[in-house]
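Researcher: Please predict.
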Amino acid sequence: MNLNLRLKTLLIGRTALLPCQSLSPEKMAPAYRNPADPGQMSKPCYKLNFSWKARRFSLVTFGIAGYLLSSGLSLANTVTAQTESTENSPLNIGEVLKAAGAIGSKATALKRLSTIPIEELANSTQSQLQVGKDQLTFLSPLAGGLQLAEKLPGVYVSGSNPTGSVGDNAIMINGFSVGSYSNTSATPNFNSIAVTFDGIPMNNPLSGDGGWYSAEIPIADLLSSTNIVYGPGNPDARWQASIGGTLNFIPVQPSMKPSVKISGSVGSYGAQTETFDAETGLRDGWTGVLAGGYTSGNVPGLQYGYPYRAYAFFAKAIKFFDGNDRISFGAYGENAYYLDNSTVPVTPVAGYTTNGYGVPGPPLSEATSGFYSTMTPEQSYFYYRDNSAIFFTKQHMALSRTGQFDNQIWFRDSWRVHFGSGNYYGNSSPDQIEYYYPNDTTVGDRVKVSFLSPHNDVAFGGYIIHRNYHSAWDLYNPLYGTSESVPNTKNNVDMSQLNEYVYVQDRLHFLQGAFSVTPGIAYAAYQTTLANLFSPTGSPLANGVTNDTLAQGWYTNFGGVEPSLGVNWRVINGVHIYGNVAYTNENPNGEAYGDYYEIYINPNNIQLTRNLDFEGGIRYHSHALLINLNYYHDQVDNQVYGLYAQGTNFAPTGYESANSLYQGVNLQIHWTPIYNLMVYATANVQHSYYTSLQTSNNQSFSGNLIPSIPLHLFSLGVTYYHIVLGGLAKANLDDRYIGPAGMANPISGAVTLKTNPYNVVNLSLSYKTPDVRGLIPFARYATFRIGLFNLLNRNYNVNESIGSGEIEPGLPSNAVFGYQGAPRTVFGSLALKF
């Protein structure tokens, strides 16, 4: 339908559309005159004349109609205006359409904050995917941000509580990881994913222990979408830790209309989750959102109770000015607590019994004492409290008709308390009790200036980030007269870093946008300092206390150029071929500097970690089918990580230097064969290995698999929709398969064993109805959900390893320990929208 017919359809009344050139200046709407020459028009346009029978009337049209006239976007939203006219006289609606366009552009901007348009993803030269709120109904109410991200191909979550994010969990994307160190031990790809919240960086690239914790996004229901850039991507979307990819959690966003949503759920093993989401709607140029939630329960299935709980809150306000300029202010905070369960032997290991290590009794293992058997909380308890807070502001303004300026400033503080005791191994160790209290503080500013032209879109900018990371713990045992204030072993290291990044990126597009090339170049610089606050002499002993870090104090100043090139070709409508190659650098984390290493690392050996990444594939999208097939190839050099001595040490006593190759294929399919049936599937097949691996004791394991990376990941789901009694019923059945992964020996570094593969089937049912309006005042609709997860009640380990390397005596090379996955669980929930 052409523009004239669209407007005839939308506007009520008898209309006449006349070319502006045929009208005299006096009859033209002022909004359409050429200021340089009032007698001429700068471009063809149309004048709308209306004839009405009444003097006063109400004109109803879609708010985006004005925006359609100026920018060609689709129609959306409504606006009402009143005016006066005499019978058969022309009506000047220029101001009405101008106001409608302003409202429509605000609605478009707000929607863009929540999700990336499909067309933008299709035209991107990056390998980028997203998952939205529609997938939340298929997840357990306990799900956090990681579980939503796991709906995308190449993504794998493991840890002590993988059904929810409140636990010692880690996430892998194409083999690169971030999260709990204990679930990526002896893995060189650790802390190589940039994690952002509403575009604000969350993780600490300096940390050798986590850098970012899954409990920082504990409730998925507070998110509107999650998107991933696989690989470093273009300079415009890159952060310091983006060497392996960028994971962006998008929270619920302000909207045009006011609304309130509340939800509550209960389920197996004492689980419960409550959330709220209140949106103000647009008022006098302001719109805002306040959201929060609480979740708690016990790790499912285990012989003994391991509780967890978490709070999270988010607030954001946006002020719109003329021309769609805007400023926003946001804050996010979370507080999480959990008691972490220990891994247990999969099969009997000499010395490990239900009564404690070396104590006579039945063997402790999944095979002999019960699959969900664990050490008692008294035998091994590790208490975690994770806290973080983010405050930020963003500004967006037009510099000209084609130029824009964007800026974001933020402050983030993250602190953790980790307190525990390995009583299972007896009470004779001088380092029996651990008190670990790291803290990370970050302040940063990122600026972008962009200009659009018919065939050339240029963006340039950069960021500056200052980070301070305090890595500290005390190890003690009251039996020896030591305590938290007077420990037996201590670590007190302070690291600070200034990270500068500048870039220029140019998107050249031709053939009416069908073909685009995006060259870019960036420069990243890092000034990093390590200060050993406990023992400036570098001695292993200071005043009778063992120092867990021998490094005295180092300073490095690194910098590197990062070129990239992306291509996207729309072969035919809906079919895109794309590719992206990027060379990037990352400052190594604290392990490379010797933080909490009981050995000396020569600072001259510290080097930038480098990645040469290629991403390429084909996309197809239509109203019924979406397919994305992608190949990736990453050569990563200069990786460092720790090794342990006979499994009896708390801190590494050796290290490995590695170069690695990550390569594989990802596939995503969403298909709607009929209007009420959806089929979706993902697949990942990869073979990632060390091209070079040398240990500090001169061992070589080149050619070994990179550990902890599943060789295959598959998922398949079917969703059926049906109208029942005026409401929408939905049923979803999905199956996820996790293939085997290599296991590294944390003492030697060799990868000789593989984990056991498994698959999990889930079923969820939901019903959304407006029939609560008469029962609950102001309620618009209610949604009921029931979920059965691990429907077939399979026994499986979500993570397996050859011990963890930490404080595990008598560890043979084939001693496999596991984190048990959840048994069958049932959840029910109710959500109300007002």
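Model: Confidence is low (pLDDT under 50) at residues 1-101.
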